[in-house]
Amino acid sequence: MGQKKYLFALQIIRQMFEFLIPVSCTFFILFFIPGKSRKYCAIAAWISIIGAFISGLPAWMEESNIMYPVMAVLSIPFLFITIHLLFRENEAVLNLTRAAGVAFIIYAPFAFINEIGNFLISLVVLQTTIVLELFQYPVDIVLWNTFQHGFFRVEIILACTGIQAIAIMLGVAAAVPTTIKQKIQAFLLIAPVIYILNLFRNAGVIMTYTSQMFSWLPDISGSSEYGFSSFFWAHNIFAEGIALIFLIILAYSLFRLIPELGEFATSLVGTYEKEIRKIFCKDK
Fold it and tell me: Are 232 and 62 spatial neighbours (Cβ–Cβ below 8 Å)?
């Protein structure tokens, strides 16, 4: 009975996620329509996207993912502060909402239209195979999106394509007004670079996991699945850590390309810092 209740709860959570994502996307799109209702659309968009984000907690915990659960917990106070600032029509937060809206609009077709998402996945599978061939690492393609080497398999899903990071960074680039030249340069800096490096990231995870390269490291994954510890270290620790460092470097390069982003970031951080100080009664 306990297992059935757990599976039923997971099903409800997945349905909630599938419902909240398109709702959030709709409100982000409505935010771009000028009018007095913009801030209310923004508030509804943030509530639904944070709700969807938090609903992913059980799945991430089951996968022994570290970064996303921490971000999900931190998103709760962020949401309350954001709603408060949107009611005041704070310019920095409105620009943040525009960035999130642009990112969502870019990501939405891949997430909501199976044909588009599956096409991108199949393209990434093909090109990851080419990278693996460069390293002379033999793999078999089983099913249509799954690599196998020996006993172990790695499935490529939409999250493995890099489209989320590309959408987020393009959204950041759209947070402030830019020239046509800056838009083109920002796209070339973000999309092809992230996409290509993500192929090497996929190949690295496949090679290190299926060869059990990190089996000597302590098993802190909490999973009883044979060999999962190597995947945990390869994917959840090293790959995500390197990706985070790269995104910081990319963001710095983007700020050099679009100096106004630096001013926006400073204003945004200052705004949230001020609100946090108020919460803890430290604002002077």
Answer: no
